[in-house]
Design brief:
By secondary structure, this protein is of the alpha/beta class. Helices cover 26% and strands 24% of the residues.
Length: 148
């Protein structure tokens, strides 16, 4: 499992290095107005979900049934990078979310979590600054905050 959830993307050298360490080379742009089956999705090394309107992003992912392929990709050790809204869709902030982490996720916070491993189950609300990220390599022991 390789998931990197951020507030503002690759803002620090540590987060960039983590991304490069986890990422591969096959990157493409995908239109969320069409679905993508898992068999096609798994050819990609990284799925990068950008920021914007979290409600709209999640609505498109669910409407195209991309959520099924995406979660199968995650569970098959696919690397997912979420930025801002792209991170929120994995948390329980929104109705019909992807159900990946059972916590509220706040992004763009002035003060965030301390870096290091997180206890599982996760606390009710995790706060990410623009210079830190939630890295999930495995549940329950591979969850940590990196960055500043």
């Amino acid at each position: 499992m390789r998931v990197l959830l951020t507030s503002a993307g690759l803002e620090t050298e540590e987060i960039k290095e983590c991304f490069v360490d986890m990422a591969g080379k096959n990157i493409d742009v995908f239109d969320l107005h069409t679905g993508m089956e898992f068999e096609k999705l798994k050819q990609y090394d990284v799925i990068y979900l950008c920021g914007g309107n979290a409600d709209y992003l999640l609505e498109r992912i669910n409407a195209t049934r991309f959520h099924k392929s995406l979660m199968e990709y995650v569970n098959d050790n696919g690397l997912v990078i979420g930025v801002s809204a792209g991170s929120l869709i994995f948390s329980n902030n929104l109705d019909n979310n992807l159900g990946f982490i059972d916590t509220k996720l706040d992004v763009h916070c002035i003060a965030g979590e301390r870096r290091g491993k997180l206890a599982y189950p996760l606390k009710n609300n995790i706060k990410l600054t623009n210079t830190c990220a939630l890295v999930i390599r495995d549940f329950p022991d591979g969850v940590e905050i990196i960055g500043e």
